[in-house]
Amino acid sequence: MATIIVGNQLAEETATGRDELPADYRGYLGMVSHRLLWLAQPGDVIVLPNQPDPTFVAYVWDLLGYHSNPPRIVVPPTGARDDLLLYDDRLLSEEFIDELRTLIRPSQSEIWAFFHDSTVMALAERLGLPTNPRRQFLEQGGLRLVNSKSTFRAIASGLALHIPEGIIATTPAAAERFIWTHLAESRSVIVKQDGHGGGYGNDILKSPAGPSGFGASRSAEIPDRQALAAEVRASWDRWTTEGTRPVVIEEYSGDAVPLYAEFDVRDGDAELVGHGEMRVGDSDDGPTNAGLVVPAVRAAQGPAYPAFLEEAQSLAAALGSIGYRGSVSVDSIALPDGRILLNEFNGRISGSTHVHTLCRALFHGDPLSTRVVLVRSHRTLPPTASTLDTLEDLQLRFDSATGFGVILGGDDGQLIIIASSLPDAEQVERLLDDAFAERGELCRDAV
Questions:
Q1: How many domains is the chain built from?
Q2: What 3-state DSSP class applies to 196?
């Protein structure tokens, strides 16, 4: 069975209109889609918004051992906008569909997309791919359900799972009342757009003495109730996508450590793929996701961690029971008092999927029982060939014989450091920083 892997990193509505993302971030996301090469098998077709660095492509196929029959990379024609992302008009262009038809056998093919949205469903139909229960669920709006923050709170509450204090607000008055009960006590809240991702669309609202931090594209200090009322009035349409969706508001802890657990949901089962900690870094726009620590070495030592994995699995299984199939990442926060609270799910390929897929391809048995993986993201690096030369010079390039070293995760500058312990991985990261700085190729925040 050949797979058509579609790198549509974000849905159409996040590329246009009120929720449009900046061009530099859309360009970064387009490059992130190049990491999907790690998920492909020989005979697969990978649809990307633009061509990845040829040196990176050759590097991936070499490490995976795909010499004789590598996957095919296809880039649709540029549409009405640009080639930064896979917009609807690009994926559904007749020229592109005709090209795909020459590369696949419909009866022996399936689609695996970053976002299984209506455009991907239309593409599957026009290619004549067989219908299955997964497609039927998605064709009826299932994607929105499994990426909805309000749906998460409803299902998690129904399962009596541990989640942050919060509400699903449908009126400005309800939102204002809940927010003020926290600001008045010098606590902060995070306001989440129901369908956005990656922290975009989220606001942190804080009193002058309240905590601020990671997980939002905007932070605002609210000095009094009058200022809060003005903030709610000014932001309500944006928070609710012009009144078409509810908004989720939760208590926010600035000292929380973000965690995730990723599952593969199949018929009657949710298999744990991997789990880890999301690293927090700094950029010009504030704290941002800077990569992963896999597994979550520090948090996993706490007594609440096994219960977190059990709750996350029950949540993933619940999505399977309503018809979802595929990857789902359950996010959570580890609080300073030891509690771990689930705070959303994302039914799509995540930023960790290629890391776990790669580890399973490289190692046998439990791939992370004797290793720690430190993923460094949101950075710019020199061109791929120069980066690989630096790794070679430092004798840090991944060695298949030992199972340790540094892998170039993407031509967007992501590095995957595989070591025997977290301190060893962090030491390698410092060595790389020093080496790039000495060569005048200092890593810096990309966005």
A1: 3
A2: coil
pTM value is: 0.90
- pLDDT digits over 122-140, tens only? 999 999 988 766 777 887 8
User: Which structural domain range is residue 18 located in?
Assistant: 2-140
Consecutive H or E run containing 27: helix 23-32
Contact yes or no for 214/198 (Cβ under 8 A): no
CATH number at residue 363: 3.30.470.20
Q: Are residues 281 and 207 in the same domain?
A: no
Name 47's bridge partners. Answer: 6, 74
**Please, what sign has the CA dihedral across residues 176, 181, 184, 188?**
negative
Cβ-based neighbours of 276, under 8 Å, separated by 6 or more:
259, 260, 292, 293, 294, 295, 296, 352, 373
Query: What digits encode the pLDDT tens for the residues 177-226?
Result: 999 999 999 999 999 999 776 666 789 999 988 776 666 778 899 999 99
> What whole-number distance in Å separates Cα of residue 70 and Cα of residue 45?
9
Separation between Cα atoms, residue 183 and residue 223, nearest integer Å: 9
Compute the residue count for the chain.
Answer: 447
157/182 same-domain check: yes
- Distance CA(417)–CA(428), nearest Å, equals 8
End-to-end CA separation in angstroms for the chain: 38
Closest residue by Cα to residue 380 from 442, 425, 314, 296: 442
**Virtual CA dihedral for 351, 354, 360, 366, nearest 10 degrees?**
0
CATH number at residue 162: 3.30.1490.20
Asked if 310 and 439 sit in the same domain, the reply is yes
Average of per-residue pLDDT values in the chain: 89
Which alpha helices (H) appear in 142-219, and where do they start and end? 142-146, 149-158, 172-183
Please check whether residues 122 and 164 belong to one and the same domain: no
Looking only at the bridges linking them, the beta strands covering 444-445 and 203-206 are unpaired
Sign of CA dihedral 143, 48, 405, 361: positive
Cα distances (angstroms) measured from residue 360 to each of 13, 57, 355, 356: 34, 19, 9, 6
